[in-house]
Here is the input.
Amino acid sequence: MSVTCPICEAEAAEKLPRVSDHVEIICPMCLRFGITTSALSIVYHRLPEDRHAALYQARAIAAQEDKTPLITAEMF
Ligand SMILES: [Zn+2]
Here is the structure.
């Protein structure tokens, strides 16, 4: 399914099926990451640099736990 990346607004893909509380995006720029539905509802109101900062933060946490980055509303 083709979607707009919530971080960089490039054309991206959503990994389906959608999990209950978050979506997983596969973006050519931002690579693969998850974003919670609550974060998704506010991300478009944030500045691009704040969105990338949230992705950067999610990646740093995921790197420690060896997981797919997950952006949450607390990161904005
Ligand atoms: Zn992106």
Notes: The two ends are 26 Å apart (CA to CA). The chain has two helices and five strands.
